[in-house]
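May I ask you to comment on the folded chain given beneath this request?
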Amino acid sequence: MQNKNHLRIRALCEGAILVALAFVLSFVKLWELPNGGSLTPAMFPILLYAQRWGVGRGVCAGFVFGLLQLLFDGAYAWGWQSMILDYLLAFPPLGLAGLFRGKAWGIFPGTMVGSLGRYLVHHISGVTIYRIIAPTAIPGLGTYDNPHLYSLVYNGSYMLPNMLLAIAIAALLYVPMKRYFAGNDIQK
């Protein structure tokens, strides 16, 4: 039986390791859009941490990851407002994966909910900060004169693939790591 202090220290250490892994994986860019946004496997460790330890700790891990992205990954921003929205507020919703903590197969709906939360913050940023004044073209995806539609398509063009990549990683690792996904190794 592990006491509460042991569990807190374990959660902190595991969080530090998974945030560091996410940060390293954020440099593995499978492709990158010109105005920010890329396809990387970086979301998965944050989603896994939230799945194991819950929403509160997952949100904190997402915030720390967003802060690291802002400080060290050459943030694409149009001022302090977009720094706050696209980094400090966009990554914490990945912690919503913790809503499915302890549930069989919970990593899959958790990944969808966490990704949707992150997408919504990026969408709000796109509509309010990156709002378009004139028709704007997205190469291969058309020209848009509506800021909501533009933000929907632009942010969706990298968030949907990121979510699918995280689900694919979870699917590959699920059978050999099933007890870790469910947090069965954490004694309470």
